[in-house]
Amino acid sequence: MTAPIPMSPSPRPAPQGPRREVRGSDSIRAYMDQVRRVPLLTREQEVELAIRHRDCGDPGAARRLVDANLRFVVRVALGYRRYGVPLPDLIQEGNLGLIQAVERFDPTRGIRLISYAVWWIRAYIQSAVLRSWSVVRVGTTHTQRRLFYRLPSEAAAAVAGGGTAGGAEELAERLGVPPREVRDMQRRLAGRDVSLDAPVDDDRGFSPMDRLADGGQDPETEAADAQDRAARRDRLRDALGCLPARERAIVEQRHLAEEPRTLAQLGEDLGLSRERVRQLECAALVKLRRALFADAA
Q: pLDDT tens, 15-37?
């Protein structure tokens, strides 16, 4: 098994690993200039480095293979900018795909690394786009993923050809899928997530959160419930007042305290056995039920 590609910075002027922070247009341009300065590898150099990595686990060979192909990741990432994911994030995901490709590359098959790696680069970038598109997963099947990326361009082509952008039957025929699959993906693409805090009314400052229905009770119901709770508390207080002091103390400390006490603890405080405390508790509860039932009747 080959050793994994190290994530530590390269000593050469190449990019410092796929998780390097790239922010702002100036940083993007600097990054692109940096990767373009890394020399490309000849086929012979690429095969030699790939064999050294595969057979010897040479991290330096793996690093050179990655660094020499980072410019191609940028090219692929640029094609996915319209999906709303920041370009630095697309590049970082594509770099991870490139690393995966270097790990799996077989130099004896007679193809260049980038011809193989481009599929891994696209897969990682597309996965990132799908994850960012919605909290509800889209593109969970091969057909859905193909529609997610091709439907907008095919719709544009249909319009250019005199068709209708939203014609599911025409688009389905172009893409070779059932019309229901096209309609389903059109609904998903049209229903992007919206932040509940995002303003929707510039003049009044309303957000979707302001327009959500209140799941709580209406004021009249809340007031009635509060009155009912107060009445129950009053009846319980009156019923407790009819109990002997010792029984009332047992009930309060066993059933009404935030931290109820045990029979043994109360027995120790009152100088009674645990069984005697239990008997007094049972007698007090019977009296309470009778008093509360009589008040309710």
A: 444 444 444 578 888 999 999 99
Cβ–Cβ contacts within 10 Å for residue 37, how many?
11
* CB-based contact 89:127 (threshold 8 Å): no
Asked whether residue 167 is domain-assigned, the answer is: yes
Neighbours of 221 (CB within 10 A): 10
Question: In angstroms, how far is CA 61 from the centroid of its own chain?
Answer: 36
Which residue segment(s) compose the domain that 276 sits in?
Answer: 230-296
Question: Looking at the domain assignment, is residue 153 inside a domain?
Answer: yes
pLDDT, tens only, 95-130: 999 999 999 999 999 999 999 999 899 888 887 877
Domain count, the chain: 3
CA distance 82 to 213: 34
The set of residues, in sequence order, having a beta carbon less than 8 Å from that of 181 and lying 6+ positions away, is 143, 144, 147, 172
Residue 47: give its domain's CATH number. Answer: 1.20.120.1810
- Please give the distance of CA 184 from its chain centroid, rounded to a whole number: 23
Let me know if residue 214 belongs to a domain: no
